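DM from R.C. (forwarded with permission)

"hey, sorry to bug you on a friday — could you get me a structure for this? deadline for the figure draft is monday and I only need the backbone to look sensible"
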Amino acid sequence: MSRWSFDLTAAPPPDAAIEIAARHVAAAAVARRGGQTVISAYAVEPLPEGAVAPSLTAQNIRDRALVGGAVARALDSIGRPKRVGLVVPDAVAKVSLVRFEQVPARAQDLTQLIRWQVRKAAPFPLEDAQVSFTEAGVVSGGREFLVAVAKREVVAEYEGLIASAGAHAGVVDLSTFNVVNAVLMSSDVPPASDWLLVNVDASDLASIAILRGPQIIFFRTRGAETDGTLADLVHQTAMYYEDRLQGGGFARAVICGSSNDEVRRSLEQRLSLAVENVDIRVAAALTDRITVAPELLDALAPLAGLLLRDGEKAA
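My reply, with the result:
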C-alpha cells in the first residue's frame, strides 16, 4: 500500500511523478545536470469527460481501460519508471484545519487525537480511510494541523492504474498541495505575508488555498456542480479571510490551471490585485526540446511540486 502522505520524508524522492486528473494524465521525470535540476521528460495525455469523476465516496475511475491506457502511454514516454509519486484530484480527500490547545508529546497519541477529531466530519467510517496530517503552525490558543482524509478504496483505484502499468506509487498526494510546493520553490515568499492560490482543472473543479508564508491557513475545494462562478468563490473566500482570519490583505495571488484571460480579469477585479501564473522554471529548468506554453507549465506544476519538495511531517 502506498503512503497517503504530504511529504517524502520516509523515502527518497522519486525521479518521476504522474498525475491522474479529471481531464488528463500528466507525467514528468527529473534529472540532475551540472548541479541543476531539470525536467528531462514529460507527457500529457488528454482524457474525455467522464472517464475520471473525482469524488470522496463514489467510484472515481469510470473507464478503467481508457484511463489505464493513458497512464501506460504517459509512463512509457518518460522512460517507464518503476517507482513514481502519484498526484490525485483534491476532491478525492476531505481537507480540514484542526486546532488543539494542548498537543500530546507522543506522536502516536497525536495521531489518535487527530483521527478522533476528524472522525465526526468524515463522510465514511474512519476505519475505511487513509489519514495524513502536518502541522500548519502555532496559533493563538494552541497549534493547528492540516489534515486530509480519503477513502482507502478510492485511493486504491488510482494506485491500481499505476500498478497495472508496471510501476509503484510510493507516495500519493493532492494536486493543490503540490502546486503550493511549486510556488514556494519557484519564488521567495516572506514568512509573514498572506497570499492566495487558485488551482483549477478543465472539469471546473477548483481549490482555493490561503497561505501565511509557507503555511496553509484556509483550504476549500469546489465541485464542478457548485453554483456560482470561480470569481464568486474567490470573492467569498476573500471576505472570509478579512472577517474571520483577520487578514490584512494579500501580497500576491497565483492561479494554476487556467490561462483564460477573462477568468484572470474577473479574479483581478474581485481582488484588486494582479494574478500571476505558476512558473516552475526557477526551481526546475526545462530541457531545450520542451516547448513552453502556459498550459504545459500548469500541467507540470503539481508534478514538480511533488518531485522537488523537501517534505514535512506526515502520519
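R.C.: lifesaver. Residues 311-315 have pLDDT under 50 and may be disordered.
me: no worries. Helices lie at 64-77, 107-119, 152-164, 175-186, 230-244, 261-271, 294-308.
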